[in-house]
Amino acid sequence: MYAQLVETGVKRVKSLEEMSPEERNFQEKIDAEIKIEAKNWMPEAYRQTLIRQISQHAHSEIVGMLPEGNWVTRAPSLKRKLQLMAKIQDEAGHGLYLYSAMQTLGADRDEEIAKLHSGKAKYSSIFNYPTLSWADMGAVGWLVDGAAIVNQVVLQRTSYGPYSRAMIRICKEESFHQRQGYEMLLTMMRHGTQAQRDMVQDAINRLWWPSLMMFGPSDEHSPNSAQSMAWKIKRQTNDELRQRFIDQTVPQLELLGCTAPDPELKWNAERGHYDFGAIQWDEFYEVLKGNGPCNQERVATRRQAIDDGAWVREAAVAYARKQQNKSAA
Amino acid sequence: MHNQALVPYLLLLGDSALVQGQRLCQWCGHAPAIEEELALMNVGLDLVGQARNWLEYAAELLDDGRDADALAFRRDERAYRNLLLVEQPNGDFAVTMTKQFLYDAWHLAVLQGLVESSDPRIAGIAAKAVKEVTYHLRRSSEWVQRLGDGTEESRQRMLAAIPALWRFTVELCAASDNEVQLANAGIGANPASVASAWLKQVSETFAAVELPLPKAASYFYLDGRKGLHTEHLGLLLAEMQFLPRAYPDATW
Predict the structure, then answer these.
(1) CA-to-CA distance for A224 and A205, rounded, in angstroms?
(2) Residue A184 sits at the chain B interface (C-beta within 8 Å)
(3) Containing H/E element for A113?
(4) Which of A203, A234, A276, B130 could form a disulfide with A139 if both were Cys (CB 3.0 to 4.6 A apart)?
């Protein structure tokens, strides 16, 4: 999940009787599965929640280019280099779709990006982990994109039309890259050397738990979920999505011939789901607060890119103005 | 006789595209706008794709057991045949865009010649690449003009970037005996036509925003066609080739 802790600013979900006529009309539309569009009336808290969620999602796409950019100059074959470049390019494109969707809510892209750079806005905790070997590119594609897809597939039905449509487009590209990531790992496991197989297992050991954290806090510690669910911004709870991800990922893990770094992971026939061990929530909250392994580097890199590029953007604006004046004259 | 002349030519084309693509990869996450992140990676992706096509053909002609990956990841700098221009460091956005533009203008002229090649394999690769490079040139020439006639700062940066790169353009207007032979045989692009098309494009783009055109660069000691590179290429290859060199038996 690319937006894992979104404040709604709402303490308690109102009942229909407590709502103003406008709010009630809005909620009835939501309940009837009618998409909300940019020009429709919406509660201010709904608008702000969506701005926070969509911008967090967009920021995640952009910051998410960095752990992969770390290996794009070192990809081990022309084919893998091309795949990774295509993936990074798509991520920049996803960031742009999402910022556009966010702008339909009246938010300003530059202002929201400034919040990312000041540490006020969040992005997915996963991108604060370092990519330490080439196998991480496969593991990120498989686990991280896999977790994102589980979340985004559900968000295709989110109540806000522009967000829902962005998700439909993004999911198509994302699924392709996820399969590629898995194929990279499968190639290393089946046709590679022992050193490569060790590399894959090590990548999984490091990225397994951080991927599970992508779904956000457990339901009992997710105070904003009730309102997001009532507004149908979220369609399923964090824990439901996390369970779905684990259930679909464990067979893939077995096919690879790898293991999860979780001794408690085992099939529960009674529940029809995999049981799994406890997530280190302390680590999750530390990473979210900015104390993860790469938080400082990630934000500093993005801030520097925008600061260093200021003169380029100014030049583009100045040139465009001159051209306009010329054609007006 | 053709293969002996053709392989270095394919390496000139393939290595130049690959090294330029590698330089663009280094921009990932550092571009001045998200649109530029996308565009730089897009151009790089095209170039690495083209490099793969040229190197595959070179590997087939060499027929010594090496494939395109072996050519890309196991050759040392003395065996690389790329233009010196593309191995230059990215510098600021003005340097990157000037470098891209000077290369694109050459690249497009070469590819336009190669579309007509009597070698169908070359004509086929060029026909695909020419569409991509037409876009690259449109983009880079627009940036040269935006920066050249943008703000005072952007113009100053362009005025610094051009002379820093200009001496390497001597290679864009030069040709080896092989290339002349290939052109005469109807296989390669005509070096004289390439040089004049390149100069026309650069003069017009610079003139449109009153960027001064330096006088023609003159020959100097280094020569990418002979594998005599600047000190920048060794480091670029060390980074790019690290994994295949460190794990020679691996399958990726």
Answers:
(1) 31
(2) yes
(3) helix A109-117
(4) A203
Residue recorded with tokens 């084919």: A79
Side chain identity, residue A317: V
Q: What is the pLDDT of residues B208-250, one digit of tens each?
A: 999 999 999 998 899 999 999 999 999 999 999 999 999 999 9
Q: What are phi and psi of A309, to 5 degrees?
A: -90, 0
Tens-place pLDDT, residues A267-292: 999 999 999 999 999 999 999 999 99
**Sequence-distant (≥ 6) Cβ neighbours of residue A159 within 8 angstroms:** A30, A35, A36, A231, A232, A233
Q: What is the DSSP letter of A269?
A: T
Amino acid present at A156 = Q
- Partner-chain contact A65 B29, CB within 8 Å: yes
pLDDT tens across A101-157, in order? Answer: 999 999 999 999 999 999 999 999 999 999 999 999 999 999 999 999 999 999 999
DSSP type of residue A288: I
> Which residues in A196-216 are b (16+ Cβ under 10 Å) and which e?
bbebbbbbbebbbbbbbbbbb
Q: Which two tokens stand for residue A130?
A: 């370092």
pLDDT in tens, A218-237: 988 887 788 888 999 999 99
Kindly list the residues from chain B whose CB atom is less than 8 angstroms away from the CB atom of residue A305.
29-32
